[in-house]
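Q: What would this complex look like in 3D?
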Amino acid sequence: MPPKNCAICNSARAILKRPKTGQLICKDCFFYVFETEVHNTILEAELFKPGDRVAIGASGGKDSTVLAHVMKTLNDRYNYGLELFLLSIDEGITGYRDDSLETVKRNQEQYDMPLKILSYDELYGWTMDAIVAQIGKKNNCTFCGVFRRQALDRGAAILDVDHIVTGHNADDIAETVLMNIMRGDIARLGRCTSICTQGEDTIKRSKPFKYAYEKEIVMYAYFKKLDYFSTECIYSPDAYRGHARAFLKDLEAARPSAIIDIIHSGEAFEIKEVVKATQKLQQTCKRCGYMSSNELCKACTLLEGLERGMANAGVTDRARKRMDAEGPAPENLRTIPFFQQPNGLRRTEIAIAYTPSS
Amino acid sequence: MSTITLSVQFSGGLETLFGNRTAHTVALPARVPVDAAHWAASPAQPGSEQAGTEAETKPVDMAYLLHHLRARALTARPELFLEHGTVRPGILVLLNDADWELEGEGAALLHDKDEVVFISTLHGG
Ligand SMILES: [Zn+2]
Ligand SMILES: [Zn+2]
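A: Here is my prediction, written as structure tokens for the whole assembly.
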């Protein structure tokens, strides 16, 4: 086939068919429209204000590597006035995370951003390798997910940032919408499409790539020759998500707009207040100070189970009751260091507390 | 019998299906039978493929390359590479640095020294 010209500049050779629009565009126009769309997403959602300290959750994988590059580019081009940091969590998975952290370390130099690596080992006293050695490969993703979430918040507190951005892309969000529908998880369905989440006392998290297709992220990394790590977690195969992903890719092959359409469908669901009200009130964990919907946060419960050799206690209610029946946690139980709310959040809380009620 | 030589690259985790090697050099016959049934049985060394057959031929294309890679280079789990006669959804293909969707996908013709890149988007974010 003869080369086709770019639909935007009409002069250079088109190298990409945009999945969102079907447009054929050249390399330079692709970089420009990709970056500009992320910029528009950021502006429309008013994600940042000048002076914000922002941590990029960096795994060394394609999404967060491209996110770091694009955040730096946009911060420079449009003078966002952000202070950018890289925040990585080391789960302690030999042959997986240790290699991907090397990528993050290179990103630190390439983008000249300070990097903080926080490990499960230093925070919880357990690596994922050690957890899997004790509990096997079933349920280990529960531990990893809970531990990572809290580790990111704690890493953000150490860096004293206002905000964590993550590389979740349009495909990830569409996939989560599908999974929440299939599981009937209406509360999560309502939340999973929001670009920005912020509980009363949690650090703000957002997804600047909410509308960016995975295909374009990978193409961007390829044409920019960005250095990323792409190996599957050796413990993880999340079979359910894998099926949702394969299904979504089939839909995309049949109609590329399917991904954005599913996100819009997720957004269009109106979640009744009754459903929202059943979500538990937040409090702080009496053992570690992290936000929690129970007396003990999920991570403390999981950790106690691991330490007492009853790992399922944090996974099922029945196992939890069995552990409670064995008596209270021993005095010398290993615990997570007490969580200090970052300054920015304390300021906000005080401000809210003094707002006069009208 | 003339052959063409291609440089083929696998990345994004796809290399794990190809002996953990990212860069491959692949030689293909310049012309191949039109009827894919003639390729299916046993992919021969370039040059011997058409020997003694009167089958109608056409210039070699991407569809033939996929068949060749599956038969000759793939070392594990073909279902993760090909599905319904083309690459599995989620695998990007670039021919001389352009999305193969612009070049006609399987029908895109191959020439000597062409560069083909396969990238999986399905691995870790
Ligand atoms: Zn152009
Ligand atoms: Zn706790």
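A: To summarize the key features: DSSP finds 15 helices and ten strands in chain A. The pocket of zinc ion (ligand 1) is lined by residues A 6, 8-9, 12, 25-26, 28-29 (CB under 6 Å).
Q: Very helpful, thank you.
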